[in-house]
Structures are given as C-alpha cells and as structure tokens.
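re: ur question from earlier - yeah i can do the single chain one, its not a big deal. heres the input i used so u can compare w yours
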Amino acid sequence: MQPLSAPQEIPSVSAGGRLATGPAIAVGGAAVALVVGAVTLWVQYGTAVFFETIAAGFQACF
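and the output i got, formated as tokens:
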C-alpha cells in the first residue's frame, strides 16, 4: 500500500520570521509597571482619590 502523499519536511522557523522578543519584553515590562503603579496608588489613596488623581493627571497632560 502506497502513502497518499510523499513525506514532507516541517519548515523550520528562520531568524527573520521570529517574533521580535526585545521590543515585546519592553512593552510587557512597561505594561506591568503601569499596572503596579495603578494598584499602588489605589492602595495608598483609596478609590475616590485614586480616580481624582488619574483625572488630574490626564487634565494636566491634555
């Protein structure tokens, strides 16, 4: 009995096709830092002051 198709090699991932790990790690680290900062502010100031601080920060930037 003959196989239906010839065996094929699995293509290997080339160096150019890989995900850029350096920038991905940097973006992930920045996201984690923002979340940790937000949780820290929330714990320190409470919910009402936390939201007012965030709103004041946006207002100062824009």
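The mean pLDDT is 80. not sure if urs matches, ping me
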